[in-house]
Amino acid sequence: MSTLISIVIIVFTILLSRNKTTWWKYNRRISKIKSNNSDQFFDQYFIEPKTFYIKIFNTVPCVAYISNVNINKLFDLVNTNKYGKVLEVFQRIYHDWDNDTIRFSKTLFVLENKVVIRMMDEWSDIYFDSSNYDLATSILTEFKTYKAPEKEKDYEINIISLNNNSLDLKTLSIKPTTLDINLYYNDDFKTIDAVIKERLTKGNDKGIVLLHGLPGTGKTTYLRHLIGNLKKKVMFVSPSVAGNLMNPEFIDLLLDNPNSVLVIEDAENIIKDRRYSSESSVSNLLNISDGLLSDCLNVQIVCTFNSELSFVDNALLRKGRLIARYEFGKLSVDKARKLNDHLGLKTIINKPMTLAEITNPDDINPEPVKTNVIGFRREVLMEN
Fold first, then answer.
1. With bands split at pLDDT 50, 70 and 90, how would you rate the model's confidence at 384?
2. With left for phi above 0 and alpha for psi between -120 and 50, is residue 112 left, alpha or beta?
3. From the CB of residue 226, how many other CB atoms can be counted at a distance below 10 Å?
């Protein structure tokens, strides 16, 4: 008997020594998280839910996520105690000047069964103990029946931002733009505009649009006009977020919002030729727009930038992958005069001018200097 006890003690000692480092790191991490470090407990705007969960329940949570849902209805549903008694509610609220009401932008529900539910603008995630998978699955299954209402405004855009390694999707209105393409752009843009609108309104399609040119030539003005003509969901991606296009959370967001249009402004670092830059994210862009994932996502991408087209990776210019490409330039003298007269301005025009120069005649800042680079210019590619 004493021999058996000795063997057990020896085995336990060996196992403990092997796992001592792992357990020490784990306990150290838990202790660190449970400290009163406010920088760790809060993200930039509100409570960081994973840290919050560990602090109140002393265990690492599992996470379930769903997007494109009607948050107001989910709020009312959880508040009925259907998934467990609501112990506490923490909110970040703001004043909506357009409707003169108080609204919430972030909410944390703490339930009695070790469940924390976070609600954002059009998405929610559920933090739960590893023994509560069935409950989390049932919550997620019911949440998906409350899909967010379809786009109601013609001029809105969904901003994707990265906040403390978590993606936020916020719907914002943008300034309406009534635009006469024949008046505001050179004659060769009319055909390109027609192709872009035809393809971007087509369901279950994919491909890339490249729009470039000097600052002030009307790229952003055209984007506002284009968004107002689309019924699809338009998601704006900042260049910093676009560098993480293949992150699992980003792919989840795209899977939850198929048949959408991604807009990336100032996309130089995303599309630059891989032969000359290690910072390029071309591979990620190709995987989403034309790789194995593209058939599932059906996402179309619009990139705007100021550089020459020769700066762009050749893989993005391949026929069948590119919807259209166009270089915005200065309006011809005749076009500039017609727009000047239409706007009721008295500027004397005797040379080609940009939209910004025409519409801001009192601006004395010098125009940017353009460096001539050999490369592709205007062209549109059409598919049967």
1. very low
2. alpha
3. 21
**Structure-token pair, residue 378:** 């205007």
Q: Is the pLDDT of residue 280 over 60?
A: no
CA distance 300 to 78: 35
The span from the CA of 33 to the CA of 277, in Å, is: 38
- Contact (CB, 8 A) for 300 and 206: yes
Eight-class DSSP state of 188: T
Q: How far from the centroid of its chain's Cα atoms is residue 284's Cα? A: 14
- Amino acid residing at 12: F
C-alpha atoms less than 13 angstroms from C-alpha of 53 in its C-beta half-sphere? 23
All structural domains of the chain: 39-149 (3.30.160), 170-380 (3.40.50.300)
CB atoms within 10 A of CB 122: 22
Calculate mean pLDDT across residues 353-371: 72
- Spell out the alpha helix ranges (H) of 58-212: 71-78, 133-143, 181-184, 189-200
Predicted confidence at residue 359, as pLDDT, reads 87
* Residue 147, amino acid: K
Question: Which residues have a Cβ under 8 Å from the Cβ of 104 and sit 6 or more positions away?
Answer: 75, 91, 92, 93, 94, 119
Q: What one-letter code names the amino acid at 314?
A: N
Average pLDDT of the residues in 300-310: 88
Give percent of the chain above pLDDT 90.
36
Question: Tell me, what DSSP letter sits at residue 331?
Answer: B
Q: Is residue 57 within a helix (H) or strand (E), and if so which, with residue range?
A: helix 49-57
Q: What are 186's two structure tokens?
A: 């050179």
Encoded tokens for 66: 């769903």
Q: In 3-state terms, what secondary structure has residue 242?
A: helix
Q: Are 167 and 123 in contact (CB under 8 A)?
A: no
C-alpha distance from residue 194 to each of 155, 225, 382 (Å): 19, 13, 11
Neighbours of 305 (CB within 10 A): 23
- For every residue of 267-300, DSSP letters joined together read -HHHHB-TTT-TT--HHHHHHHHHSTTHHHH--E
Name the residue with tokens 């259907």: 82
